[in-house]
Amino acid sequence: MKVILATALMLWAGAALAADPVEGMWKTRPDDNGNFGLIQIKPCGPAYCGTLIQSFNGSGAVMQSDNVGKQIVWDMQAAGSGAYENGQVWAPDRDKTYSASMQLSGDALSVSGCVLGGLICRAQDWTRVK
Q1: Backbone angles phi, psi at 34, to 5 degrees
Q2: Strands 108-115 and 96-105
Q3: Per-block average pLDDT, block size 10, for the chain (130 residues)?
Q4: Domains and their CATH numbers in the chain
Q5: Which residues contact 86 (CB under 8 A, 6 or more apart)?
Q6: What are the distances in angstroms from CA 34 to CA 10, 30, 89, 99?
Q7: What angle do CA 93, 96, 99 make, to 5 degrees?
């Protein structure tokens, strides 16, 4: 009986510690200014959030930015089949926050968002940094 209980606890703990596939480091596409960044996505409460870890200029050189350390993505809720929804994305280049969703497909993350009830939308494909 003790062996069965110990095995069950180990299996439960392993499943609880398994990372969601969206977790990790993601490289954004260049913004309106040609700059791009590294976003770290990890759990924040029951959802997923992404924080800007590093900024780069259009030629790929590391650049200083007041936005490093700020949340870019928040409140993304896993919806199954690689979909994340009901979140928010902040675009530093336009200083706008969009109602957003994400779709994960292997090492590609499609991030899209809209403002004004869907009248103005943007989308970007991010790539996983290994």
Answers
A1: 85, 0
A2: antiparallel
A3: 40 53 97 93 97 96 97 98 97 93 98 92 95
A4: 21-128 (2.40.128.520)
A5: 75, 76, 77, 101
A6: 48, 5, 18, 23
A7: 125
